[in-house]
Design brief:
Length: 268
C-alpha cells in the first residue's frame, strides 16, 4: 500500500522531551512532502498553538486540533468543523475541576479558559505564544459557560492522580462524554464520539484520502482511535504499552528521532 497521508501527534511524538522538533525530523518531513505525501498535525493543542508549529514545519494547512474535537486551518487559525458538549454538560465537567488544585484548560472554540491557579503556573512554565494569545483567565469558568451559553469542546486537567480521581468520580456519571488522557498526570474530557480518528477521517475526506491510505504516529491514549482508524498505525518507542499493541510498527522514541525513523521506514 502506498500511503498518501502522514498524521503526527505533537507532544511525545513530533516534539522531543524538550518540546523541540529536531533538524533530523524536520528533514524527514521535507523529504516525505517532496514525494507528494500530505503531512498533517493531529494534536490535543488548541488551533492557535498548533498553527504556531504548523507554520514552522513542512506540513499541510489542515490540522486536527483540540484532541480531535476540531479540524482547523493553520494559515488563518480558523476552525472549519468542530464537535462540542452541550452547555450544561460542559459546565458540570468544569465544576468538577475548577475548584480543585489542578491546572485546567477549558477549550471553547479557538479560545482557552483557565483559572488563576492555572495561570500562575502557565505564565512561568508554559511559554507558547499561541496559548497565551488565546487564553481567558476567570475564576468561575463554569459560571461563564452558563452565562454566555458556551459549548465546550475539551476539558483538560493536570495534577496529582489522587485529586484527578476525585474529579473523575464526579465526571464519569455524566452523559455524552468521552474520557481519555495523554499521560498518568492528566485527563481529557471530550464530547462523546469525538476523537482524533474521527476527525482525521473527516479531514481525509476533504483531501480525497481514505483511512486505508493514511499512516499515523502517536504515543498516548488519546492517539488510540487515530491509530485504529488508519491503514498504518505507528507507535513511538516512548508510547504507552497499550498503544504499542495497536501498532503495526514501533519506531524509536521522541528523543531519538522516532518520527524520522518511521518516515524513512514507511516511505523509503
Amino acid at each position: 500500500m502506498k500511503y498518501r497521508l502522514l498524521a503526527l501527534d505533537l507532544d511525545g511524538t513530533l516534539l522531543n522531551s524538550r518540546k523541540e522538533v529536531t533538524p533530523a525530523v524536520k528533514r524527514a518531513l521535507e523529504w516525505v512532502r517532496e514525494r507528494g505525501v500530505h503531512v498533517v498535525l493531529s494534536t490535543g493543542r488548541i488551533v492557535g498553538e498548533a498553527a504556531e508549529f504548523a507554520r514552522e514545519l513542512p506540513c499541510d494547512d489542515l490540522m486536527v486540533t483540540a484532541g480531535g474535537t476540531a479540524i482547523a486551518a493553520a494559515s488563518d487559525e480558523r476552525i472549519l468543523q468542530s464537535w462540542e458538549m452541550p452547555c450544561e454538560i460542559g459546565a458540570k465537567v468544569v465544576e468538577a475541576v475548577q475548584s480543585r488544585p489542578v491546572r485546567v484548560m477549558i477549550y471553547v472554540g479557538s479560545k482557552i479558559y483557565i483559572n488563576e491557579y492555572s495561570n500562575r503556573d502557565f505564565v512561568v512554565n508554559y511559554r507558547v505564544e499561541g496559548f497565551h494569545a488565546n487564553k481567558i483567565v476567570t475564576e468561575d469558568i463554569a459560571g461563564e459557560i452558563r452565562k454566555n451559553h458556551l459549548c465546550v469542546t475539551k476539558v483538560y486537567a493536570l495534577g496529582e492522580r489522587e485529586v484527578l480521581e476525585q474529579a473523575l468520580a464526579e465526571i464519569r456519571p455524566l452523559p455524552g462524554i468521552t474520557i481519555t488522557s495523554s499521560g498518568a498526570d492528566n485527563f481529557e474530557i471530550l464530547p462523546a464520539g469525538a476523537d482524533k480518528g474521527r476527525a482525521l477521517t473527516r479531514l481525509g475526506e476533504m483531501l480525497g484520502v481514505t483511512p486505508a491510505e493514511m499512516a499515523a504516529v502517536g504515543d498516548s491514549d488519546n492517539d488510540a482511535e487515530m491509530l485504529r482508524a488508519v491503514g498504518m498505525p505507528v507507535a513511538m518507542g516512548n508510547a504507552d504499552p497499550a498503544l504499542k499493541a495497536l501498532a503495526k510498527y514501533v519506531t524509536a522514541d521522541c528523543d531519538h528521532d522516532g518520527v524520522a525513523q518511521a518516515v524513512y521506514h514507511l516511505f523509503g
